[in-house]
Write a structure and sequence with these properties.
159 residues, mainly alpha, Zincin-like, three-stranded mixed sheet, 5 helices, binds zinc ion
Amino acid sequence: MSQSTLLKKLRSLFSGRMVVRVRHVRRKSMPTGTLGAYKKHKETAREFVHGKLKEQNAHYALSFNKVAIRNQRTRWGSCSKKGNLNFHYRIIELPDSLADYVIVHELCHLAEFNHSKKFWALVAQTVPDWRARRKALRRYALHRKRSGLGKLLPTNTMV
Ligand SMILES: [Zn+2]
């Protein structure tokens, strides 16, 4: 089975669920590069994410619990039932409009813990072109060859 066929199959299989894992990727605890560079990058991402959350949540006024910045392999962001938000440390490398989409997407899960029409309507309040952004985001990968702080590899990733 080709990779794209496999991905299509996986998507249809998991559509409607909270998280779609594209494929299993062997875990690496750290990207290549120094630990110091990673930590610095992570801190920059933390500030960036907090700024974006504040900006977008001015509209939604939702309450959340902890915000974590992680190296979480296949996801740009996630939201737990406890209201914890997680974002990938490389979110800062995305085009701004896509980073906004990831932030808004996870924020809206605080109100709608699903991908229902209601959820997307909520997203559309601040990101009316969410469909295009969601599609564009798939071109940015988070896994396989970890190239440290190098370029993101184009492949399939979903939030
Ligand atoms: Zn989602």
